[in-house]
Write a structure and sequence with these properties.
With 204 residues, this protein is of the alpha/beta class. The chain is 24% helix and 21% strand. The chain has one domain: Aldolase class I (TIM Barrel, Alpha-Beta Barrel), CATH 3.20.20. An eight-stranded parallel β-barrel has the order 1-2-3-4-5-6-7-8.
Length: 204
Amino acid sequence: MIKGIKICGVSDFETLNFILNHQYPAKFIGFITNYKKSKRYVNHENLKKLLSTNKKKTSYVSVLVNPSDKELDNIKNLNFDFYQLYDVGPERTQNIKEKYNIKIISAFTITNQIDVEKYQNYIGISDIFLFDGKGYEKSIGFNHDLLNSLPNSINKMIAGNIKIDDISSFKNKDFFIDLSGSLENEEGKKDIEKINKLLNLTIL
């Protein structure tokens, strides 16, 4: 059974409140904090407003691509539970975790088995290991069979062009599932009906 759902790229109050108040809310909500190439990027002022919402039992995640010290200092007082770090080495990850007293999701973009094995350098540092496609904001998939050798001893999360209809194939996997683009409409905005379908599916 999957461990829970992360909905990433939330950028408006309507979507945020719908997820938080759902009968089966997501375990994590991700906010694109410093990657301005993404259409889901949230600027600092809007981020502060969104994060003032009562998150209840859901964890707020700051999604960061190789963040600078200035960017990290700028968000250190915001209501985040996790920093999700792309392109950050293990030593700097450790420093960020200790300096900001924050839980870490280390993200690895995958094309082959060598990419998967990089997680080993973060054992004892990262709280969750996220395996994603190479596309960043483009939500590109990868071969999930590459993850079959991962040990049960680590907390695993999977992303990368995952569709709502794919959820059933993960029912016997001990992964957190991270979705973003597949929950959007043709205009690139989060679709409440799709989110509702997803969250109701996770308890079946």
